[in-house]
Amino acid sequence: MGTVTLTQDDFDKARLIALRRNEWASMNAEQSTWGGTYRHPLEIDILGTCGEMALMRFLGSSSVPTYDPALRKNPDVGPFDVRTTAVSAGCLIMRQRDAVDRYHVLVVQLDRLRYRIAGYCHGSIRHSKEIHQYERGDPIAWFIPQAKLLPAEELHDLYMDAQLEAYLADLGREARDGQAVSE
Q1: How far is Cα 123 from Cα 67, in angstroms, rounded to an integer?
Q2: pLDDT per position as a tens digit, 72-118
Q3: Phi first, then psi: what are they for 177, rounded to 5°?
Q4: Nearest alpha-carbon partner for 95 in 46, 137, 158
Q5: What are phi and psi of 164, to 5 degrees?
């Protein structure tokens, strides 16, 4: 399992991105799915954005999470949806709205700037007989224990495969559109 330490600058960027996401959701009258269980909902948005940033650093990416509302349905980082928890033994929680055809990564906050990439699973795991569906309010959720997650070290290969696939798709689009093919 990989441990990542964010810089203060990373944290500040994550906080700003979380604030912008939160403002956009408020202005568009979208209901928060978080409820009031963990201080202020902005705190959870910051935690989640820091988890995305930690995964990016783990994968060697220097980019930052997006706050573009047009991209909110896309995976968080490369081909991955990221779930972050401040509970060291916490589970990866999937909800009905989460994509079944994507990879989901669990990031565990160790302290304000340190995060552990606990592992990942494919969204289809929720259909496994080993994973139980819990009705804990609405919506229904699946709780995948860390012991059931695949090793974080495999994420590098999946990320590079997705990057290569996206690059080849861009080349195909350029060639099809009659543009010069990038080198």
Answers
A1: 23
A2: 788 889 899 999 999 999 999 998 888 899 999 999 999 999 999 99
A3: -85, 0
A4: 137
A5: -65, -45
Domain ranges of the chain: 2-152
- In the numeric block, the tokens 């980019």 are attached to 63
Rounded CA gap, 109 and 88, in Å? 7
